[in-house]
């Protein structure tokens, strides 16, 4: 025999492999699609602690803020525009914080001896002896609460623009994120500046830091400022929770139409907990519209369309259903959604009826027991 004879090549193969057996199995297109998942979480859904869940949400929120505000290279216009926006919002946050305190002092008829603006702080001096405990508490929280109110107004404006125009400028959306970040960090920023300027100590004629107001008040009244420190920490904790929650909800629910929430669910949730509609799934209103238009349709040669509705009751007879003999070829995911024995599946068929009596299938739909309608 010739050396180029294919039989020699096959005969020299490894033993145990027949000539009619393929060397590898070719997977079909549907089998390849089964390998894909819409959730990247590969572990099964297990009970997780509340602290672990909060940590995941916190980590994802911080990463999302950094990625949204710090995106781009150092030479890109986007990065420098965001940096300029953050710097401008520093001044807006600072002056609005102290301006709200000045308004509160005028509202409670406390004379202000000094109110002067600086790039890094504001000197706001008043007679502390004329302020009661409840009013001093209001002086501490009025600044952060005003910033949170502005944050709420921005979110409402963004929601209204989304309803009216269907979109919102991305730069303004980043402005809301930057403002929410400064709102959350406002007590810390004020504390750092006041500590650097030496406002933690009481001095006549000089402003007192917000975090030290309750300490000196209780020290003057009860000769012990420990309770004032505890109250201040409690107030700042509550303000931080309010501002961080509002920022997180906006970032996850409204920013970029909530795509961050979709990403978080895909990377943290198990696939069984997510809902994804079928391919070619339609609503009940759309099906009603299609059926109504089909009944009114007339062809140029006198054709008309007829709608036929059949109910199929699925029964389990040796893992075979009664509908298998009807010739309906259903995808695997639809067969899985049919459920247990006794479930009813509605088959809606639309035929084009010609003058000679010939019926041609135009479109047909299945209403599954779960309520989904698939074409």
Automatic annotation (TrEMBL):
Native species: Podarcis lilfordi (Lilford's wall lizard)
Keywords: Membrane, Transmembrane, Transmembrane helix
Entry keyword annotation includes Manganese: no
Residue intervals passing through the bilayer: 77-96, 137-156, 226-251
Superkingdom in the source lineage: Eukaryota
The protein's name in its UniProt record: Uncharacterized protein
PANTHER family on file: OROFACIAL CLEFT 1 CANDIDATE GENE 1 PROTEIN (PTHR33862:SF3)
Tagged with keyword Nucleotide-binding: no
């Amino acid at each position: 025999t010739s050396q180029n004879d294919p039989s020699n090549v096959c005969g020299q193969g490894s033993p145990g492999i027949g000539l009619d057996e393929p060397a590898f199995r070719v997977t079909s297109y549907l089998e390849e699609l089964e390998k894909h998942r819409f959730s990247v979480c590969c572990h099964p859904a297990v009970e997780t602690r509340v602290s672990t869940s909060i940590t995941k949400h916190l980590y994802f929120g911080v990463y999302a803020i950094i990625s949204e505000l710090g995106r781009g290279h150092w030479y890109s216009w986007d990065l420098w525009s965001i940096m300029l926006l953050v710097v401008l919002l520093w001044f807006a946050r600072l002056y609005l914080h102290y301006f709200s305190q000045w308004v509160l002092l005028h509202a409670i008829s406390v004379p202000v001896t000094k109110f002067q603006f600086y790039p890094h702080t504001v000197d706001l001096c008043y007679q502390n002896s004329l302020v009661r405990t409840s009013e001093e508490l209001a002086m501490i929280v009025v600044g952060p609460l005003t910033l949170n109110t502005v944050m709420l107004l921005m979110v409402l404006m963004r929601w209204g623009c989304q309803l009216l125009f269907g979109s919102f400028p991305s730069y303004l959306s980043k402005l809301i994120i930057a403002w929410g970040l400064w709102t959350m960090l406002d007590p810390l920023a004020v504390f750092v500046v006041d500590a650097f300027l030496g406002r933690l100590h009481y001095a006549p004629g000089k402003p007192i830091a917000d975090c030290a107001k309750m300490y000196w008040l209780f020290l003057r009244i009860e000769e012990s400022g420990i309770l004032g420190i505890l109250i201040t920490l409690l107030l700042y904790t509550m303000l931080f929770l309010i501002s961080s929650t509002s920022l997180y909800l906006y970032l996850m629910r409204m920013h970029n139409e909530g795509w961050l929430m979709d990403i978080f669910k895909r990377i943290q949730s198990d696939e069984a907990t997510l809902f994804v509609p079928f391919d070619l799934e339609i609503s009940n209103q759309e099906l009603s519209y299609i059926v109504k238009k089909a009944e009114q349709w007339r062809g140029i040669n006198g054709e008309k369309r007829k709608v036929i509705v059949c109910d199929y009751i699925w029964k389990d007879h040796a893992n075979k259903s009664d509908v298998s003999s009807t010739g309906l070829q259903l995808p695997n995911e639809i067969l899985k959604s049919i459920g247990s024995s006794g479930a009813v599946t509605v088959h809606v068929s639309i035929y084009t009826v010609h003058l000679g009596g010939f019926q041609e299938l135009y479109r047909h739909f299945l209403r599954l027991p779960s309520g989904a309608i698939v074409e």
